[in-house]
Amino acid sequence: MDLKEAVKLSVEATKKVAKISRAITAPKATEIWWDRGVKRKLTYRGRHRIKAQLCVGCGMCSRGCPVNCIEMVPTGVKKPRAVPKIMASECIFCGLCEDACPTKPEKAIELTDNYSMLVEPGTWEKLSAYTFEPEDLQEAIEKAKKLEEMIEKKKKEALKKKRGEKK
Question: Which residues of the chain have pLDDT under 70?
């Protein structure tokens, strides 16, 4: 080995030692971030928010899901006739459900910037049972029932009025 190669080898070794020492003294990659006010990137997709008040029950989110993790749960009323229930353990957070939602100007299903989706430590059953469900489902069902009753009442009044005019 000549002098040129020896110097080259020692320079490379010195660079590697410097790189390793920088890596050892650098701060940890995993830090507690939720108390630091971390700003999300525009492309981040977090926890799902489902608004039953806006949902029309069309099922487009379920049909648009590439992994079929969205189940449409019947409500027992005409609108929404069904609401989405998302299996978090199967979801890939692609955002296609949000894109497929036809409600405007606000979407009935959206992916938020909520980073904290922590599940209690435990078994696979606990994780597989973790779902994203509508926030205000009971309120929406009650409102829809009242609306259906009001429409029925108006139909009956219109029918009585029409029969009264014929006589």
Answer: 1, 28-42, 115-124, 126-127, 166-167
Q: Letter for the amino acid at 20? A: I
Q: How far apart are CA 17 and CA 48, in angstroms?
A: 46
CATH code: domain 52-144 is 3.30.70.20
Spatial separation of the C-alpha atoms in residues 159 and 104, rounded to whole Å: 34
Report the chain's C-alpha Rg in angstroms: 29
Q: Which of 77, 51, 83, 53 is nearest to 145 (CA)?
A: 77
- Let me know how long the chain is: 167
Which residues does residue 111 pair with via DSSP β-bridges, in sequence order? 48
What helix, strand, coil percent values describe the chain, rounded to 5?
40, 10, 50
DSSP class of residue 40 equals P
Residue 126, phi-psi category: left (phi > 0), alpha (psi -120 to 50), beta (remainder) = alpha
Instruction: Round to whole Å and give the CA distance between 151 and 161.
Output: 15
In the chain, where are the structural domains located? 52-144
User: Residue 117 is encoded by which pair of tokens?
Assistant: 């989706």
| Residue 159 to residue 167: CA distance in whole angstroms | 13
Alpha carbon dihedral 93, 98, 101, 104, in 10-degree steps, equals 170
